[in-house]
Amino acid sequence: MHKVLALTKKELHGYFSSPIAYLVIIASLSLFNMFFFMIIDQNREVSLRDIFQVMEFMFIFIIPLLTMKLFAEEKSNGTMEFLLTSPLTPTMIVLGKYLSMLVFYSLLIALTSAYYFIVEYYGDPDVYSILSGYIGIWLEGALFIAIGLLTSSWTRNQIIAAMASYLILFILYFSSTFTKYVTGFAETFVTQFSTRTHLENFAIGMITASDIIYYLAGILLCLVLTRISIDHRVWQ
Fold this sequence. Notes:
Helix content: over 70%
Largest sheet: none
Strand content: under 5%
Number of strands: 0
């Protein structure tokens, strides 16, 4: 486990050694803050439900830009072979890179916690629904990162990796809009396939086993597929 943590630390050091990490944090928080105050001013309610939905949509665009280089950059720079022949196993490599981006994402989410104190100052918010909303947006981001990690393992081109992530995330996000074209089991499947369905439950304070399983199963599937991808050198 210490090898995984060492790789995670190394990756994080690489992020924060570059101005890109700080630019992403500043730009993301600026957008979130703008929408937060617009929503509060318009709705006049002490709730973060709508801001969670805005954050979900924005992360569809932000996260692929963060994850596209995780493996693609290694391949482009010719360091992937060195990484695979290091004392680290493919599983350790996948976990180390995934955890590094998850820590970065968690920091970004943590910086928005000030929203709770702002709405609490002006009213009496439902603490449980806000907490569950944060759990939901964290799990959704964790899934998006796993998807981005997977697509980055497919290619040495960062743009292609980002585009592949966008395609998958758009399908997951917008799939619920097609429920009007199907009925029965197909309608239920399409509804449950969409990330919007599950985050909406968290945003209103409803945490169910099916929602948690949805995210955890998706994360596990992507990590396993990523491990298979780099283990079999699909990118070569």
